[in-house]
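Entry 14. Structure prediction run on the chain below.
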Amino acid sequence: MLARPAKQFLDSKTSDYTGLVADLLRHPDVQYTRNIDQHKYHTRFEHMMLASKFAYYFATKTGADVKTCVRAAAIHDVWTKGMYSQPAVEFAKKIGEPPAVQQAIATHMVFNNPPKDKNGWVVAFADECAWGVETLELLRLSLKDILGFLAALSPVNLK
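Output returned:
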């Protein structure tokens, strides 16, 4: 369970945060991620937005560059396939994101290319936290689906 301050932040609409990502959210390539499933019950867009909110929270707590972390996390999985982040780095470069954002995206998959600075670690950790939240929800919803399926098969009324 998330600590209360983190949960309150993730549930809020902070104007500082929104101002940092508003232009990215309007980009057609980012909007397209609303159509890509990620971790079964979420879209890639939802995953990136959750990661970017975690990045905002962690960057403010660690002294990392908030703008770099939030923007990197908000687009870290655009056009990625599996464990390959280069398409997202190329996208960041194409839309004019600075090298620090590109570097944080390039190193967010820790096992492929570990982060070299605080910004990279914040984005990597934010991505893992978003994945963790999504995985817990996947397990919860999958268990509910499995139990519902079993109840439907059962000759005994389980309701």
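Residues 29 and 111 are 26 Å apart (CA to CA).
Filed with the rest of this week's runs.
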